[in-house]
C-alpha cells in the first residue's frame, strides 16, 4: 500500500512539473526518439549526396559541388534545438521549391524557416485583397512550423471596421482552443480595460503578430515572428484603423522595428507606417503581464486614458 501511495505521489509530482513547464497536452501516443530521427535524416542527406555525384541532372550536386560555407548542417528537431554535423553538404537534400518539407516522423511537414519561407509569406500576404482572403491564405500557408502543433489558427476578433486595432504577440492555450485572441485569463483584464474607456470587443479589432500558439506558450522565435509578420502587416493595411495599440513589448518591437523596452515606449504616441498611411500608435503593457504584476495596472490605465482622450478629441472636432 505504501509503495502504491509513493508511486501515486511521484506521478502527481511529475504531472505538476509538466504543467508548470507549460505542457498541457500530449502530441503523440508514444515518445518520439529525436536522436534516431536526426540520424535517419543525416543518412538520407549523405545518400542523396552520394546519389547526386552520379546524377549530374540534380541541381547543386555532382563532383564539382562544394560544401556549405560553415561546413555544418543543422538538423531540425521538434523543438527549438538543432543537432550539428561536420562536413555534410545538404544542397542535394534540400528541395529547390520554397517551403520544402523536412523529414522527421510527426513533423514530416515541417519546413526550414529560411529566407524562402519569409519571401513566400510576403507574396501570399500581398496577394490578399480582403480580410477573408487573407485569413484563407494564412490558413493554407505552410511556411510556419507553429501550425503543426497549434489546434487552431487565431486570426482576429472584434469589428474590422473599428477605429482602434489592438495587437498582441501570440495566442495562449485558451485562444488556441477557441480560435480567438485574448479569451484566456488575460481576456477579462483586456475587456475591463476597454470597458473603462467606453469600448468593448465590438468596437475594436484584435489580432496578434503570430497567429498560431507556440508550444507551451513559449516566446515565438525571431524566425517565426519574421515569417508571420507580412500577414499582420497586410492585416493592418486591410483594416486601416485610425489608431493602433500594441499590447506588450514584442508586438511593439516587431512592428515598429525598435529595441527600447516597454517601460520607455508605453504611454506615448508613436507612428506606424502602413502603406501610404501614417497611423498613430500607442504601446502599453500586455494583459498577461498585468496579471502577474497588478501594481502596473495603474500605468496601463493611464495609457488607455490617453487613447480615450485622443478618440474623444477627434470626435469633438
Automatic annotation (TrEMBL):
Residues 155-305 form the Uracil-DNA glycosylase-like domain. The keyword DNA damage applies. Its EC number is 3.2.2.27. Transmembrane segments: none annotated. Residues 62-72, 81-98 have a biased composition (Polar residues). Keywords: 4Fe-4S, DNA damage, DNA repair, Glycosidase, Hydrolase, Iron, Iron-sulfur, Metal-binding. This is Type-4 uracil-DNA glycosylase. InterPro entries: UDG_Type-4/5, Ura-DNA_glyco_family4, Uracil-DNA_glycosylase-like, Uracil-DNA_glycosylase-like_sf. One of its GO terms (molecular function) is uracil DNA N-glycosylase activity. It catalyses: Hydrolyzes single-stranded DNA or mismatched double-stranded DNA and polynucleotides, releasing free uracil. It is an enzyme of class 3 (hydrolase). Belongs to the uracil-DNA glycosylase (UDG) superfamily. Type 4 (UDGa) family. Residues 53-98 are annotated as: Disordered. It comes from Roseibium algae.
Amino acid at each position: 500500500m505504501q509503495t502504491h501511495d509513493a508511486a501515486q505521489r511521484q506521478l502527481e509530482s511529475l504531472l505538476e512539473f509538466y504543467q508548470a513547464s507549460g505542457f498541457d497536452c500530449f502530441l503523440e501516443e508514444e515518445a518520439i526518439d529525436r536522436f534516431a530521427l536526426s540520424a535517419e535524416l543525416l543518412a538520407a542527406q549523405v545518400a542523396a549526396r552520394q546519389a547526386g555525384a552520379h546524377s549530374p541532372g540534380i541541381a547543386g550536386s555532382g563532383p564539382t559541388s562544394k560544401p556549405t560555407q560553415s561546413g555544418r548542417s543543422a538538423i531540425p528537431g521538434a523543438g527549438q534545438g538543432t543537432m550539428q554535423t561536420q562536413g555534410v553538404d545538404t544542397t542535394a537534400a534540400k528541395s529547390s521549391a520554397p517551403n520544402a518539407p523536412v523529414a522527421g516522423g510527426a513533423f514530416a511537414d515541417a519546413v526550414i524557416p529560411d529566407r524562402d519561407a519569409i519571401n513566400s509569406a510576403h507574396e501570399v500576404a500581398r496577394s490578399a485583397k480582403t480580410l477573408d482572403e487573407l485569413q484563407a491564405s494564412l490558413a493554407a500557408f505552410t511556411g510556419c512550423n507553429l501550425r503543426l502543433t497549434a489546434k487552431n489558427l487565431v486570426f482576429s476578433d472584434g469589428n474590422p471596421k473599428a477605429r482602434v486595432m489592438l495587437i498582441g504577440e501570440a495566442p495562449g492555450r485558451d485562444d488556441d482552443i477557441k480560435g480567438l485572441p485574448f479569451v484566456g485569463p488575460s481576456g477579462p483584464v483586456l475587456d475591463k480595460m476597454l470597458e473603462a474607456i467606453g469600448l468593448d470587443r465590438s468596437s475594436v479589432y484584435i489580432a496578434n503578430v503570430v497567429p498560431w500558439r507556440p508550444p507551451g506558450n513559449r516566446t515565438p522565435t525571431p524566425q517565426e515572428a519574421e515569417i508571420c509578420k507580412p500577414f499582420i502587416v497586410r492585416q493592418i493595411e486591410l483594416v486601416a484603423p485610425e489608431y493602433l495599440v500594441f499590447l506588450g513589448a514584442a508586438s511593439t518591437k516587431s512592428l515598429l522595428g525598435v529595441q527600447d523596452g516597454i517601460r520607455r515606449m508605453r504611454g506615448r504616441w508613436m507612428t506606424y507606417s502602413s502603406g501610404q498611411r501614417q497611423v498613430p500608435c500607442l504601446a502599453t503593457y500586455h494583459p498577461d503581464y498585468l496579471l502577474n504584476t497588478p501594481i502596473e495596472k495603474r500605468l496601463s490605465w493611464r495609457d488607455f486614458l490617453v487613447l480615450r482622450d485622443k478618440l474623444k478629441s477627434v470626435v469633438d472636432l
